[in-house]
Amino acid sequence: METKKTQVAIIGAGPSGLLLGLLLDKQGIDNIILERVTGDYVLGRIRAGVLEQGFAKLVREAGAADNMDMLGEVHEGVEISFNDEIIPINLKELTGESVIVYGQVDITKDMMQVRAKRGLETVYEANDVQPHDVKSDTPYITYEKDGVSYKLECDYIAGCDGFHGVSRQTIPEDVRTEYEKVYPFGWLGLMSDTKPINPELIYARTDRGFALASMRSQTRSRYYIQVPLEDTIEDWSDDAFWEEFRKRMPAGVRDNLITGPSIEKSIVPTRSFICEPLQYGNLFLVGDAGHIVPPTGAKGLNLAASDVATLYKIMIRIYKEGDKSCIEQYSPIALRRIWNGVRFSWWLTDLLHDFGDQKDEFDKKMETSEIEYFLKSEAGKKVIAEQYVGLPYEDLK
Ligand code: APR
Ligand code: PHB
Predict the structure, then answer these.
(1) Cα distances (angstroms) measured from residue 327 to each of 141, 161, 290, 334, 360
(2) Is 27 helix (H, G, I), strand (E, B) or coil?
(3) Contact, 160 vs 14, CB < 8 A?
C-alpha cells in the first residue's frame, strides 16, 4: 500500500469538490480530489445552468471565472406563465440582483482546467474510495487506482461525492436522520442547438403539466416538460417532445419555437432529500452528498455552492487561526440555507406541476388562489424574486 498525505481530502470532482479545492488552494491549503470516474464522464452529466451571484463570486475568488464572466448571460428577470398568461418577475427591480445563465458542465470544465493548470492533484478513476477513522484526529481514505492500493492521510475529509457517494454512508445510521419527499413525476429535458424561444426563462404551469424554457446561450436551448414517472426516453421521440413542449408554452411565445435535433435528452426523477447532520467528526457532507432538491428554481448547484462557502470559511479559520471548535458550526449554518432552498423548490414545484389525483378539488382551488395572489401582487412577486436570486450567505460566529 502506498501512502500519501494532504490537508483536506476531497471525494468527488463535481462542482462542489472542484470549487472547494480551488478555493482552499487559494489560501494555501493542500488538497487532493479522488473521483470515481473519468473527467469526461463527469462532464457528460448535463444539469442546470442558473447561477446565483453568491456562487459566481466564489468562482471568481477561486480564480476560475474568466469564461463565466465572458460567456455567461446576466438575466435580470424570469417569467412564470399560467396557461397563456405570462407574469414577468423583474429580479433586478424587486431585489437589486440578477442571476447568471451559464451551464453546470461549462463551469465544471472551467474549474477542472484551472485545477490542472495549477498542478493540483486529482485522481480520476479512483476505485473503492473509503473514508476511515473520521471521528479521530488522524482520518484517512483508502482507494485503489490502476491495481495499486493507496492510503491518503489527511486532517479533514470533504464528502463532495453526490447523492450516491460513499461519504454519507460513513455517518452511522443511528446518528443520521434523512428526510425525503419523492414527487409523482419526472422532468424530460432536451438540449438543442437552436435559438431560445424567449429572452428570459419561462416556468410554465399549464393544464397539460409543467414546462420550462431555459437556455445555455443565444444558440443553445434547454427545454423541459413534466412527464409521468413511468415514462422512458424511448417513449419520447424528438418530434413528440417538440409537439408537447410547444403546446405548453403560452400563446404569443409558442410561435417563436425553433426546433432542431436533440443533442441530449434525458429524464430525471424529482425529489427533495436532506441528511442531518452534515458533519461527523472530521467528515463534512457538501452538495448533493447531503441534499437534493427538485430542479424547479435551480437551487441544487447553488445550495452546493453555499455549503462550499461555509466549509471554506471554517477551513480558513482552522488553518489561519488554529480554531478547531468552529467545525461544529458547519451543519447548522449550511442546513439553515439548505432548508430554505428545499422549502422554495418544494413550493415552486407544488405550484407549477400537475399532481394528478394526488390533489383533490379543494387543493386545486388553493393552488389557483395561491397563483393569483403570488403572481399578481408586488409583494408576492418580491418573495419569489428574493428566493430566486438566492439568500445571502451566513457568516461564522
Ligand atoms: N468515490 C469517488 N467519487 C465519487 C464516489 C465515490 N465513491 N461517488 C460519487 N463520486 C463522484 C461522482 O462521480 C461525481 O463526479 O462525486 C461527484 C459528485 O458530483 P455531483 O453529483 O455533481 O455533486 P456535487 O458536486 O455536489 O454537485 C451539486 O450538481 O448534481 C448536481 O443538482 C446538483 O447541481 C447540483 C450540483
Ligand atoms: C436549466 O437550464 O437546465 C435549468 C434552469 C432552471 C431550472 C432548472 C434547470 O430551474
Answers:
(1) 20, 20, 16, 12, 46
(2) coil
(3) yes
d(CA 178, CA 1): 35
Instruction: Identify the pLDDT of residue 374.
Output: 86
Identify whether 202 is part of a domain: no
pLDDT, residue 48, reads: 87
Query: Would you call 277 helix, strand, or coil by DSSP?
Result: coil
Give, for 73, the enclosing helix (H) or strand (E). strand 73-75
Q: What is the pLDDT of residue 306?
A: 98
Q: How many domains does the chain have?
A: 1
Q: What is the DSSP string of 125-162?
A: T-EEEEEE-TTSSS-EEEEEETTEEEEEE-SEEEE---
Residue 88 has what pLDDT?
96
Residue 177: what pLDDT? 98
Please indicate whether residue 51, judged by its CB atom, sits closer than 6 Å to ligand 1. Answer: no
What's the predicted TM-score (pTM) here?
Answer: 0.97
Query: What number does the ligand 1 atom closest to the CA of 37 have?
Result: 13
Q: What is the pLDDT of residue 50?
A: 97
3 state DSSP class of 266 = strand
* H-run or E-run covering 384: helix 378-389
Tell me the catalytic residues: 75, 203, 295, 299, 388
- Cα dihedral value 113, 116, 122, 125, nearest 10: 60
Compute the C-alpha angle 307/49/227, nearest 5°.
105
Residues of the chain with pLDDT under 70: none
pLDDT over 70 percentage in the chain? 100
Q: Is residue 15 domain-resident?
A: yes
- Sign of the CA dihedral running 286, 309, 324, 129: positive
pLDDT at 385: 98
- Our answer on whether the CB atom of 303 is closer than 6 Å to any ligand 1 atom is no
Q: Please, is 40 exposed, middle or buried when counting C-beta atoms within 10 Å of its C-beta (0-12, 13-18, 19+)?
A: exposed
In a domain, 313, yes or no: yes
Give 207 Cα–ligand 1 centroid separation in angstroms. Answer: 35
The enclosing domain of 325 has a CATH number of 3.50.50.60
Domain that holds residue 296: 2-74+98-180+271-353
Q: Distance (Å, rounded) from C-alpha 212 to C-alpha 206?
A: 11
Ligand number nearest CA of 144 is 1
376 part of a folded domain: no
